[in-house]
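Service request form, structural biology core

Requester: graduate student, group of Dr. S.
Request type: structure prediction, single chain
Budget code: on file
Notes: please return the result as structure tokens.

Sequence provided:
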Amino acid sequence: MVKIGIAEDDVKIAALLKTALEENGYDVANVYNGTDALQTFLSQKFDLFIVDIMMPGLNGIQLCKHLRNDHISTPILMLTAMGTIDDKVTGLDAGADDYLVKPFHLKELLARVNALLRRQTGIENTKNHQLCFADLCLDTYSKEVIRADIKIELSAKEFDLLELFLRNPNRLLSRQFIAEQVWDINFETGTNVIDVYINFLRKKIEKNFDRKLIHTKINMGYILK
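Core staff response, request fulfilled:
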């Protein structure tokens, strides 16, 4: 369940937000001042923060800055009664992702919450399908491989082989393991198909680069390091 943290010192507004969000399937935790909010938001995993600007302890601007300084990238929707352009810019510069001026309709709040969560899901999905090691990156969605900003064309098997290495960095992979994972076959000691494809892959991702990435362990296998 998606978890949302609300920092709002007005108990009635906080209760209204909590009820509306829970009715829409969200798990909600309320805190009523900036100091407690910082401690709660740093100690638990949240998918979204809703933060009021005017709060005792830390105000919303200070809370946003603390969260961003602690490398918390969770989306922040800021609530405020101050609706000037300068107020909005101050909130966004502090690290907020969106800004909603009081009074607001719950439909608009829910729409903004959903939009921020969709955006964050897109960012997370992008991260999940990009595998990187050193200056080499592979995208499992687009099937692109890039090293040091140079695009590298791989065959399907070369791509699968590189993906296996990138999912197992600094781990010694035996020929038997590689055969099972990439070719879905049992390794036969009389064949050199794995060594041949390793050589193909090396030529493409290491040629013209000073740093070698795939290393041979004699009679043991290969390692990406």
